[in-house]
Amino acid sequence: MGQAVDDEATTETAAEPGTASRRQVIGRAIGAAGVVAVGGVGYGVARATEPGGSPSPPASSASDIVPFYGANQAGIATPAQDRLAFAAFDVTSGSAQAFQVMLGTWAAAAAQMTKGLPVGAVDNNPQSPPIDTGEADGLSAAGLTITVGFGPSLFDHRFGLAGKRPAALADLPTLPGDGSLQPARSGGDLCVQACADDPTVAFHVIRNFARLARGTAVIRWSQLGFGRTSSTSDSQQTERNLMGFKDGTRNIKAEAADDLRDHVWVGSETDQAWMTGGSYLVARRIRMLIESWDTDYLSDQENVFGRFKTSGAPLTGKSEFDTPDLAAKHTDGTPVIPLNAHIRLAGPETNNNQKILRRGYSYTDGIDSATGLLDAGLFFLAYQKDPRRQFVPIQTRLGHQDNLNEYIRHTGSALFAVPPGVSAAGDWWGKSLFA
Ligand SMILES: C=CC1=C(C)c2cc3[nH]c(cc4nc(cc5[nH]c(cc1n2)c(C)c5CCC(=O)O)C(CCC(=O)O)=C4C)c(C)c3C=C
Ligand SMILES: [Fe+2]
Hints:
Helix content is 18%, strand content 18%. By secondary structure, it is an alpha+beta fold. It has one domain (83-433). Strands 1, 2, 3, 4, 5, 6, 7, 8 and 9 form a nine-stranded antiparallel sheet that branches. Helix 1 (22-33) crosses helix 2 and helix 2 packs antiparallel against helix 3 (199-212). The longest helix is centred in the N-terminal third of the chain and has 18 residues, at 96-113. The chain binds the ligand C=CC1=C(C)c2cc3[nH]c(cc4nc(cc5[nH]c(cc1n2)c(C)c5CCC(=O)O)C(CCC(=O)O)=C4C)c(C)c3C=C and fe (ii) ion. Residues 241, 243, 245-251, 284, 286, 288, 305, 307, 324, 342-343, 346-348, 356, 377-378, 380, 391, 394-395, 398, 408 line the site of ligand L6N33NVT.
């Protein structure tokens, strides 16, 4: 990360004579929070040259930077990066204004970090803590995207948002296979998904957001991920999950504009206009019973998914991208792709043509101290237009019938409404919710 630049604020809320506008109140509070307002109205940050040295040179080139501002949030249709740092937050302050200050501060910080810049000075005052924690100083932006969502619990009485809750943000029902869900790894008022090609750059976001949120919100649970298990662009080769299978072959890809329109981005059909251009994120922490999987015969592993392990081809094909033939039968009349195979049950042919955009990562959190077995698996992330028509029916089918169930346990679950993108400096996620 190199020297910080200033972000210019662009909007101003009209105020009664003699009173501070909401914008001014929020701007001042952001200054007090430690992110220095520049020019009276900005959310930008300035960095003094360190006494005995000079700031680290900018490390980012244009190809490392994914634009933060835009109609949709980055980190959804953006080609999946290699690393994930994810956190769910609970808002602890009862003040709607404090909550907006936090979101405004986060947005200003996000604009900096996604350019490979610190959120504030690392080294300008020996008598106070540095504003940026510093671990990403000198690193490039590494393709960083920061994606923020709102959980169902945010739309209660606290901030007057009950009437703004979209119908699609209904709490997920109890689904088959939910018996191992842990409340401490589930839910949350907010989520932050930070993806980058450098683990330090991704973690830096969660750490600094938690710091900037102090007094307003706290982390409820978090998850680190590695080895993206879903390619989300035709330009990417398909990676493998921890079961050794290529994962993401038939995913929605960034180049498929029709699929994004039909299955991912919320359109004019929404009951809440503030969600137009947004999406819904389902997060599931799915532990794999790896030791048990590793004793399973190859042919059985392939029948679990309905694909060959090495090539990733469907059992009815030769190459990875061959279309599965669900009608194909062996000479004895049994289906080549078993009736309970994962791809048969999860695919659009079985689910009323519904698709989801998967953006999951492998995780490992050491061992389960009760058993000594690895606690590792898939942190499943999926974006969609309406979970009631996409994730819920698909997971209901999988939870009842999937051959994979013998080898997995869902241990965490959360749902978030991911609003459209932040338009420019001075905007933040869901700002119109409070208009
Ligand atoms: C509710 C949705 C899904 C959950 C939960 C889920 C868990 C899960 N999946 C794998 C591995 C693979 N999944 C594959 C395909 C696939 N999975 C889902 C949905 C869920 N998966 C869909 C919609 C699809 C696409 C189906 C199709 O159209 O054919 C594959 C095959 C390769 C691919 O197309 O991506 C693998 C492998 C694991 C390990 C897992 C839980 C741990
Ligand atoms: Fe799957």
